[in-house]
Amino acid sequence: MACAAVLVPGLLRSSSGTICSPAASLKLTSSALRHLTLTSIMKSKRKTDHLERTASVVRQEVVSAAKVCGAVNESPSVKRLRLFVADKDFSFKAGQWVDFFIPGVSVVGGFSICSSPRMLEEERMIELAVKYTNHPPALWIHNQCTLDSEVAVRVGGEFFFDPQPADAPRNLVLIAGGVGINPLLSILRHAADLHREWADKGGGYEMGTIKLFYSAQNTSELLFKKNILDLVNEFPEKIACRLHVTKQTTQISAELKPYITEGRITEKEISDHVSKETLFYICGPPPMTDFFSKQLENSHVPPEHICFEKWW
């Protein structure tokens, strides 16, 4: 397993749910992919661009065509996309992101994958969740993207959880702020897949426990609530979550109430989970990420057990 501190962009917002047939052929040819990639790289020159911020981060060489097969409003400000990627050379580790190339849009997007590697292996699908901003790739996703739209994607990132069967069991503490949940949901889903494999086959990697701390302004902006609670209920002795809201103004539903804490994630909540068997993954706004990584460092957690990624 490996992880590192890297900087990545924020993610995106809205639309209605739709599904397409994966069998539909992708029209982007190899030469078109090369042209799209090179053109986008040459034109994407702003200092705040994803490509510049992540220039030193490891990327795969493969650029793959992808087709939009689904779009749904995950919250009032976030749209979730499902992409079909036929290319068998395309793969990723839980927690990584993609460079997102859009025909006709010169700026390259950078969005964390929120689905598990198992979904790609079994269905050739990946999911992204993108927050609405005025950044051109986000605007395209929210205002122009349609079912069967074609894009190109390339995997990158050094923030991931990829244990091997012979590795020692580890507990995970996942700390998310806002759309920083995206790579952590991928890691949570991957951990659940590893639990299932261990339970069904008695083999693979033996996962420890997973605790998710996730903060947003209100319950409508807590993304993937159903997905998270489904996993908590499927693995009640292995997976737990505490959902924080900082500006809640409406009544909290009975279903969510047992998991909700009003106010920010606290130092004590995190320090209670410090142990030599625990890895900490943090993703959110830079001040939050800096605060908890520094706190863990002060609690004598080894640097190699603190993995963080910032979104902007």
Automatic annotation (TrEMBL):
Keywords: NAD, Oxidoreductase. PROSITE patterns: FAD_FR (PS51384). Residues 50-164 form the FAD-binding FR-type domain. This is Oxidoreductase NAD-binding domain-containing protein 1. GO terms for cellular component: mitochondrion. The lineage of its organism: Eukaryota, Metazoa, Chordata, Craniata, Vertebrata. GO terms for molecular function: oxidoreductase activity.
